[in-house]
């Protein structure tokens, strides 16, 4: 990317965790232009169109166990739709369940439903009086010193069991970010937690909704992060990377079981839709992106990228100035020691002087590069980070 003075930057955060193959991917540019020659926009309310159908087929082919697609506009609006689907599913299955279970430190977007299932004090505390009914369990990614990921997962599983035992018949969905709580600073957690959440949701008749807005499209390795745990959710939200960052588009994927609760009387319809839902240009971008993801074996590439970045980052992690490096695939958080006001921000500013664009979440510097980043650029990104840390954190 180039700034207004013509200085060149490597985008180390994929814009906002969206860019798949780097900016201006020729195949995606061409797909949008081709779609523009056919249809600009057409409502999805009571209608459909070819790129929307094609995209639903592509998404479902990548997601064994899920059968239907409902489009929305961005990550937050997919989460809103998912929450409403979960509640309406409970109503239409014979027992209204007004409660959502979610994790502390969670982030699902900035609209009020998404904030309700969020758990970040700084972003969410102000709005508490306005929000949906929820029960919160601890973050499986926040470990005490010396505690292993498996031990921490076991602790939070106990909490979740207790919540479900007490209120499970009121819970319509357990909502979580699978494997990585991204906005909290890339808090990674053990897959055993996800498997237990699946089991407990089933045991108490609640749905499991995984929010793959950040983790989807191979960011963590497999196409979806929940696949690390070998589970199938009932609902999956995705957004961000599905269009490779070209245009806003998101979706909720659901099982046939959930979908079938909306069939029958007209009042059972899911009365929810946005003007720009499934915009054809956005669908065309997503179709081209997903075609390339499969053709170029994106999960395989991310496995290689993640392993090489882990190696490069080892000496960074050995520094006293670095508290911890958390990584799953190409989602990386480098937590630096808090030595001054806004240390993470200062580190990113120092990296920018070295031609690398990074963003902090508190004192955690995020590395979330395009998934096909070349080796020379990987070296540049990690060297700039290391030098920036050495400059700022003494
Ligand atoms: C897990 C998760 N869900 C939802 C969202 C919200 O997406 P959007 O910013 O597109 O509304 C985000 C954004 O970072 C996210 O990380």
TrEMBL record:
SUPFAM superfamilies: PLP-dependent transferases. PROSITE patterns: AA_TRANSFER_CLASS_3. It is an enzyme of class 2 (transferase). One of its GO terms (molecular function) is adenosylmethionine-8-amino-7-oxononanoate transaminase activity. The keyword S-adenosyl-L-methionine applies. One of its GO terms (biological process) is biotin biosynthetic process. It comes from the Bacteria. Belongs to the class-III pyridoxal-phosphate-dependent aminotransferase family. This is Adenosylmethionine-8-amino-7-oxononanoate aminotransferase. It comes from Longispora fulva.
């Amino acid at each position: 990317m180039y700034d207004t003075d013509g200085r060149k930057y490597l985008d180390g955060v994929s814009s906002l965790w969206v860019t798949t193959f780097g900016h201006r991917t020729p195949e995606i540019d061409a797909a949008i232009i081709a779609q523009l020659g056919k249809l600009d926009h057409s409502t999805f309310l009571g209608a459909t169109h070819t790129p929307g159908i094609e995209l639903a087929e592509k998404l479902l082919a990548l997601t064994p166990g899920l059968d239907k697609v409902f489009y929305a506009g961005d990550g937050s609006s997919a989460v809103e739709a998912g929450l409403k689907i979960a509640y309406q599913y409970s109503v239409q299955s014979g027992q209204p369940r007004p409660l959502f279970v979610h994790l502390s430190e969670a982030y699902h977007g900035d609209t009020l439903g998404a904030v309700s299932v969020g758990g970040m004090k700084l972003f969410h505390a102000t709005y508490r009086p306005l929000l949906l009914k929820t029960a919160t369990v601890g973050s499986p990614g926040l470990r005490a010193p010396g505690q292993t990921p498996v031990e921490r997962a076991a602790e939070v599983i106990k909490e979740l069991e207790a919540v479900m035992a007490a209120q499970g018949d009121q819970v319509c969905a357990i909502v979580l970010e699978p494997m990585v709580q991204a906005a909290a600073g890339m808090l990674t957690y053990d897959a055993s937690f996800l498997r237990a959440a699946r089991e407990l949701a089933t045991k108490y008749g609640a749905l499991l909704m995984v929010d793959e807005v950040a983790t989807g499209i191979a960011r963590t390795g497999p196409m979806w992060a929940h696949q690390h745990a070998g589970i199938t959710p009932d609902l999956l939200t995705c957004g961000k990377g599905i269009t490779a960052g070209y245009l806003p588009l998101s979706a909720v994927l659901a099982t046939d079981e959930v979908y079938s609760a909306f069939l029958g009387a007209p009042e059972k319809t899911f009365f929810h839709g946005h003007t720009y839902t499934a915009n054809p240009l956005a669908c065309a971008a997503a179709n081209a992106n997903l075609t390339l993801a499969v053709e170029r074996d994106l999960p395989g590439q991310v496995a290689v990228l993640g392993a090489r970045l882990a190696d490069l980052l080892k000496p960074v992690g050995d520094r006293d100035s670095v508290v911890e490096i958390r990584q799953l695939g190409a989602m990386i958080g480098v937590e630096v020691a808090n030595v001054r006001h806004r240390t993470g921000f200062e580190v990113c500013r120092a990296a920018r002087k070295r031609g690398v664009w990074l963003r902090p979440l508190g004192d955690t510097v995020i590395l979330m590069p395009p998934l096909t980043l070349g080796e020379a650029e990987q070296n540049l990104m990690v060297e700039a980070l290391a030098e920036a840390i050495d400059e700022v954190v003494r």
